[in-house]
Amino acid sequence: xxEPEVRIGSVDAGDEGDVDMQGGDDSAEVIEVGETGAAExxxxxxxxxxxxxxxxxxxxxxxxxxxxxxxxxxxxxxxxLTAHKALLTRSPFFAEKFTASFNTRVELTDxxxxxxxxxxxxxxxxxxxPHKLPSGNLEPDPSAPKIDDSGAQLLKHARVYTLAExxxxxxxxREISNEQKSLKSLSHSKIHLITSTAxxxxxxxxYVYSHTTRADLTIRKPVASFWGQRSHVxxxxxxxxxxxxxxxxxxxxxxxxxxxLDAEEKRVQRRQTxxxxxxxxxxxxxRARGV
Length: 291
Known about the structure:
By secondary structure, this protein is mostly helical. Helices cover 50% and strands 11% of the residues. The chain is built from ten helices and eight strands. The N and C termini lie far apart (103 Å).
């Protein structure tokens, strides 16, 4: 039997989905397929009315897309990177830039090169260095000390977190992409795997309170909790920097104080509850003895 010949051409709206098969025993089948529009939600309507899922976009499809230049930083350290457009548009930030006009270069002069590098690595591989191991720890980084005494390792992941927030924040009501929410979650989880000193933690806290909004409790609340539990000890190790931090960022001081007061209030409530239960127990025993 001869192989079918497929012809794709335009058809009238009233003939959508019709299949015209011609030929006999000795002739090839000729199948004419009309150009039909996609059904809602990206599905393609089948002739019998059933919906078929949209064709999967492969990684090769991403690599076939045009290359976009990314100009990172400013001054002597300014760096030019390139990335595939189809991958970049997974971020609403880039998608809107390419919707307005086809730009082949995007300037990110205020962004950190290492953070952008981590973002691109995540787009291409789903992770960024240092990777999280199955054990829950981070893979060793030969270029970094085992204990972060400057805040550099904490700030690396904090910058990825704030960058993901920026690149995932649409200017319209479009939904934030799952990829970027995952990047935020990933970077935030790595922050808590860093072993650091008090000065490093203070440098991290300063970055958090200068680069995030008050509503971002995901990253601010753990910072306030950390200092609220340890400030009576760590403030002596920071050589006055803790006081300067509180004066420079009153919201930080308020959050730490609120944590301390809330913790004390809970302790008082627990003591009162325990005392009341003890009183009830003693009263019950007295009544029992009087029976």
